[in-house]
């Protein structure tokens, strides 16, 4: 049976790359260090800690890169909302545009997707 997320000794269930409001936000080199710390903590304690990259993730393609990184560093178990979330408000607009294009075969005009 998989261990449940009980957080770290300090009570964290998730760690986050940034608030998303800084000039430099979620970067892969920093994320790799954080993910390996999560993995080491899990191996040591059996407790799972979630990860949330935030800031600078604006496209569906960006999110796929983050999903790949999580899968490679932590495995499939971390590819669940309980353990992995993306903090990227701009991402929703791109996903809407991608779905619109997939369904209609054309790119959306500004008035087609008012939230974008």
Structural account:
- With 116 residues, the protein is mostly helical.
- It is built from 3 helices and 2 strands.
- Strands 1-2 form a two-stranded parallel sheet.
- Helix 1 packs parallel to helix 2.
- The longest helix is centred in the N-terminal third of the chain and has 18 residues.
- It is elongated.
- The N terminus is likely disordered.
- Its EC number is 4.1.2.4.
- Pathway: Carbohydrate degradation; 2-deoxy-D-ribose 1-phosphate degradation; D-glyceraldehyde 3-phosphate and acetaldehyde from 2-deoxy-alpha-D-ribose 1-phosphate: step 2/2.
User: How many β strands by DSSP?
Assistant: 2
- Strand content is 5-15%
Secondary structure tally, helices: 3
The strand order across the widest sheet is 1-2
Q: In percent, how helical is the residue content?
A: 40-55%
Calculate the mean pLDDT score and round it: 82
Segments where pLDDT lies below 50 for 5+ residues?
1-8
Distance linking N and C termini = 42 Å
What is the string of helix and strand elements? EHEHH
How much is the radius of gyration in Å? Answer: 16 Å
> Which structural category do the helix and sheet elements fall into?
mainly alpha
General shape: elongated
Largest sheet: 2 strands, parallel
Organism: Chinchilla lanigera (Long-tailed chinchilla)
Protein name: deoxyribose-phosphate aldolase
Keywords: Lyase, Schiff base
Catalytic activity: 2-deoxy-D-ribose 5-phosphate = D-glyceraldehyde 3-phosphate + acetaldehyde
């Amino acid at each position: 049976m998989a261990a449940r997320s009980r957080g770290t000794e300090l009570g964290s269930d998730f760690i986050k790359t940034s608030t998303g409001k800084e000039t430099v936000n979620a970067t892969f080199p920093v994320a790799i260090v954080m993910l390996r710390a999560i993995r080491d903590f899990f191996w040591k304690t059996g407790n799972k800690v979630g990860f949330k990259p935030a800031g600078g993730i604006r496209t569906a393609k960006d999110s796929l890169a983050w999903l790949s990184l999580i899968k490679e560093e932590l495995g499939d178990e971390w590819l669940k909302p309980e353990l992995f979330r993306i903090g990227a408000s701009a991402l929703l607009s791109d996903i809407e545009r991608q779905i619109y294009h997939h369904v209609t075969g054309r790119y959306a005009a500004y008035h087609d997707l008012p939230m974008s």
